[in-house]
Amino acid sequence: MPGSDLPRMNPTPSRRGFVAALGLGQLVSWGALYYSFPLIAEAMAKDMSWSRNDIYGAATLGLLAAALIAYPVGAIIDQGQGRKVMVGATAATSITLVFWSAVTNMPALYAVVVTLGMLQAALLYEPAFAVAVRQLGTLQSRSAITTITLWAGFSSTLFVPLVQYMLDTLGWRGALLGLAAINAAIAAPLYLWAIPSGDIQEKGDHKVSVSAGNHILPIFRNPGFYLLTASFCAYMAMFSGFTYHIYPLLVALSADTQSVVFAIALIGPAQVGARIFILLFRQITIKHLGLLTGLAFPLAIWLLKAPPSTLSLAVLCVLYGGANGIFTIVRGMAVPELLSRRNYGRINGIMLVPMSLARAVAPWAIAAYWTHSGTPEGAIHVILTLAILVPVLFGLAIKANRIREEGPASGREDQDGFPAER
Q1: DSSP secondary structure string, 305-358?
Q2: Beta carbons of 26 and 124 less than 8 angstroms apart
Q3: Of 212, 321, 314, whose CA–CA distance to 256 is shortest?
Q4: Are 239 and 305 found together in one domain?
């Protein structure tokens, strides 16, 4: 019935059950929406004799489209409708995957892939982080976000071989139908069960207010907001560009393809290992965690300039993977710990707009510069520059926030909704 809540499957889960369900749901969502795409695209290109550039052009448009809905998604979650957003987006994902399995022409492909790109903005990480912060509060959500990313960290490990098996046995159309079924059977019920319907009451230090939207405009007067957003944009551009070009870059630098494949395979375990490790150091602040992790990025990329060997490539990928695994947690907690404990979804949604644009444009821009320079060194320099900007801008954001805290409004929460107590 219009306006009625979705039916509850079971009583409200415990905190541990809530976090585990969100984490397992994220594992499936990432597998269905993200890690399956390169494998499906490759099989589709061979079967349909379509250009990879055309197929990946659809993915780029999807990322750009995701930027358009990032803020509305965050605003809806801030209003207590995270359950409807994530369950609805999961159902829409399965339906879209079914439509993809029936695609026979390029316009239809672009329609489904752009739709899936937009659904990423309603499902992958940020919406789950917003739900966790809203439900648990700032103080308790850090360990929850870490645990959610731990679950999701196994997505590629499970889904890449699973999708490959389905491709080998069912073809790419059958594989898409299989993904649709898995997504509908696992992710949708988990989100439906775990996420509370409607608005919630105060949770710890996180106060929910229907008038919270009135506090969003003063955020734009805080220099720290722009510096933090710029840092995250540099990170997204570096991450996207390096992810798309890591294999051709390493192959161009080293003739030992086996060492390259071995090194790249270490990134996933390094991400998960770093997230487990950070659980042992809950006392470290997001400020320090972000700075230390950010400094690891340029150090890792700088190793591309070292004489290539199995050891240097392995250290590069482990360092990069570990830093990337922890920085995901930093992104999830930076808004409530550095900017404001109110309106997490809205603020995060605003930041996601330029971040999504940076993620979409970077692979193409780096490829174009690589072609223009005629050497992989050109691509390395671009990625290294982005990696250096991550900690520099993050540090400037912390400094701007400290200046703001030491102002006349220190000792209390100011009118902009920035917490003076950390």
Answers
A1: GSPP-HHHHHHHHHHHHHHHHHHHHHHHHHIIIII-SS-HHHHHHHHHHHHHHH
A2: yes
A3: 314
A4: yes
To 10 degrees, the CA torsion angle through 338, 289, 243, 129?
Answer: -50
CA separation for the pair 140, 206 (Å, rounded): 10
**The domain spanning residue 69 has which CATH number?**
1.20.1250.20
CA distance 20 to 148: 7
> Measured between alpha carbons, how far is residue 123 from residues 25, 27, 96, 108, 118 in Å?
9, 11, 14, 23, 9
Of 409, 344, 343, 367, residue with least CA distance to 57:
367
The pLDDT profile of the chain, 422 residues, written as one tens digit per residue, is 444 444 444 556 688 889 999 999 999 999 999 888 888 887 888 888 887 778 878 888 888 888 888 888 888 888 888 899 999 999 999 999 999 999 999 999 999 999 998 999 899 888 998 898 888 876 677 788 888 988 888 887 788 889 889 999 999 999 999 999 999 999 999 999 999 876 454 444 444 444 444 566 777 888 889 999 999 999 999 988 888 787 778 888 887 778 887 888 788 888 888 888 877 776 788 888 889 999 999 999 999 988 888 888 899 999 999 999 899 888 888 888 888 777 777 888 888 889 988 988 888 788 888 878 888 888 899 999 999 999 999 999 998 888 776 665 544 444 344 443 33
* Contact indicator for 130, 77 with CB cutoff of 8 Å: yes
- Considering its fold, how many domains does the chain have in total? 2
Same domain as 155, residue 62: yes
pTM of the full predicted structure? 0.76
Range of the domain at 303: 215-405
Are 367 and 376 in contact, with CB atoms under 8 Å apart? no
Q: Estimate to the nearest angstrom the gap between the alpha carbon of 289 and the chain centroid.
A: 18
- If asked whether residues 160 and 70 sit together in one domain, one would say yes
Q: What distance in Å separates the CA atoms of residue 52 and residue 46, rounded to the nearest whole number?
A: 9
**Residue 307 is encoded by which pair of tokens?**
């004489």
Three-state DSSP state, 206: strand
Integer angstrom CA distances of residue 42 from 245, 246, 345, 402, 405: 16, 17, 35, 49, 51
Q: How far apart are CA 322 and CA 324, in angstroms?
A: 5
